[in-house]
Amino acid sequence: MHIRGDHAELVVGGRLDVHSAADARTVLHSAVDDGVGDLVLDLSELDSWDATGLGVIMGAHRRAGRCGRRLVLRGVPPQMQRLLVATRLHRILAIEGGIGVESLPRV
């Protein structure tokens, strides 16, 4: 997993899973704490995430809210969009451009 960017926009790539969660959490929390306004999380380079990775995203979302910021997801890959819909998290998280639920293949 790799994360690059600053306190306004981060690009996450590789796998966000139990093995990379602690490092990702540290970077995301620092970005939230050090900035103002929206924090854009570009997931277009993300290969996969597991429940732990999704928990890291949700933790950053909650932390951003407590800091008066908003976490915005950009470039969410289709398989991860399906997971957000299945867990109904697409209703909670800010997703740039939204998710076209009707266009996602049924699983």
From TrEMBL:
A matching Pfam family: STAS_2
PROSITE patterns (UniProt xref): STAS
Domain STAS: 1-107
Top-level taxon: Bacteria
Gene3D superfamilies, alphabetized: STAS domain (3.30.750.24)
CDD domains: STAS_anti-anti-sigma_factors
Family assignment from sequence similarity: Belongs to the anti-sigma-factor antagonist family.
Name under which the protein is recorded: Anti-sigma factor antagonist
The organism of origin for this protein: Streptomyces cynarae
